Amino acid sequence: METFNNKTAFITGGASGIGLGIAKAFLNSGANVAIGDINKEQLSIAEKELKTISGNVISLTIDTTDLSTLESASKTISDSFGNLHYLCNNAGIPGGAKILETPEERWRLVHEVNFMGPLNGINLFLPQMLEHGESSHIVNTSSFSGIHGHGNQSAYGSSKFALVGMSEFLRNDLKDSNVSVSVLCPHVVDTPIIGGLKKRVSENVLKMIKDMEVSPITVGEQVLNAIRTKEFYIFCDGVHTRQMLEARCESLLEAMDRQFPRRD
Ligand SMILES: NC(=O)c1ccc[n+]([C@@H]2O[C@H](COP(=O)([O-])OP(=O)(O)OC[C@H]3O[C@@H](n4cnc5c(N)ncnc54)[C@H](O)[C@@H]3O)[C@@H](O)[C@H]2O)c1
Question: Which of 5, 30, 44, 200 is 20 to 30 Å apart from 86, CA to CA?
Fold first, then answer.
């Protein structure tokens, strides 16, 4: 069973929301934590909050779309804590609208941050993890929008589908290595993004959101649990998302049955 004591985690987008929840869960388990974020102000607020749990925390200004900032983060992490064991590619941005209503720049930016950002993290940190040979894990934060295409989330949803796909191929690549992989697929987590949404919606939708949402610290604990048990898909609730997953699987199988009827 994986123990986190004295091991080291790097969490991108770690200054807020889910990333901060993951950082807290790692610190509570005795790990060293580096949070990286593009938002300097939020980083220093988050670092202060995390230091109330443990002193083994550093914060780094990064932009996951800019490899040079990840390279300098890598050096600081190694100088501060030694080998890196847990990489959480969590930074992401929204971008939901119908396809024809989504400007090209938004498509490019959302895919750059939500897909190329995690790929940059993998390209930079995975070779180090393979080289040091100690038990390690990569967690890519996708979304339930990367599992089931609901609503009109064009750029965002497609970037998250791509990240689920990339994670599946990464799992194949890393079979029999010291590095395992998970893809985190939350549906509704009570973070600043959802906080903003709650202010804009009707009473009924607000009730639905409150019914579905889970807290960032719960998600953090779910992530650590998945690392312990080497669970690949990390789901954060099993009620609303179960119905969506069943609907997707059924529609795929129904299409196959129509085209290639079962013989049994
Ligand atoms: N909140 C939800 O309900 C929910 C649901 C599904 C998936 N997610 C995903 O979870 C992840 C975290 O989302 P959150 O809700 O905690 O949002 P959040 O806005 O609270 O946190 C995201 C953090 O990422 C940082 N960031 C953005 N672009 C960056 C970049 N290029 N480089 C470094 N840092 C960057 C932001 O500054 C912010 O601190 C995202 O990938 C998001 O798509 C969230």
Answer: 44
CATH architecture of 8-189+215-259: 3-Layer(aba) Sandwich (3.40)
For residue 189, the ligand 1 atom closest to its alpha carbon is 3
Residue-range domain boundaries for the chain: 8-189+215-259
260 Cα–ligand 1 center, Å: 41
- Supply the angle between the helices 104-111 and 154-174 in degrees, to the nearest 10: 30
* Residue among 90, 108, 103 nearest 12 (CA): 90
User: Is the alpha carbon torsion for 41, 141, 139, 191 positive or negative?
Assistant: positive
pLDDT digits (tens, 9 = 90+) for 68-90: 999 999 999 999 999 999 999 99
**pLDDT over threshold 90, residue 196:** no
Report the C-alpha gap between 193 and 190 in whole angstroms: 8
Model's pTM, two decimal places? 0.97
Longest dimension (CA), the chain: 63
Q: Which of 156, 170, 184, 223 is catalytic?
A: 156
Residues with CB under 6 A from ligand 1: 12-13, 15-19, 37-39, 42, 62-65, 90-93, 113, 117, 141, 143, 186, 188-189, 191-194
Q: For 27-61, what is each residue's pLDDT tens digit? A: 999 999 999 999 999 999 999 999 999 999 999 99
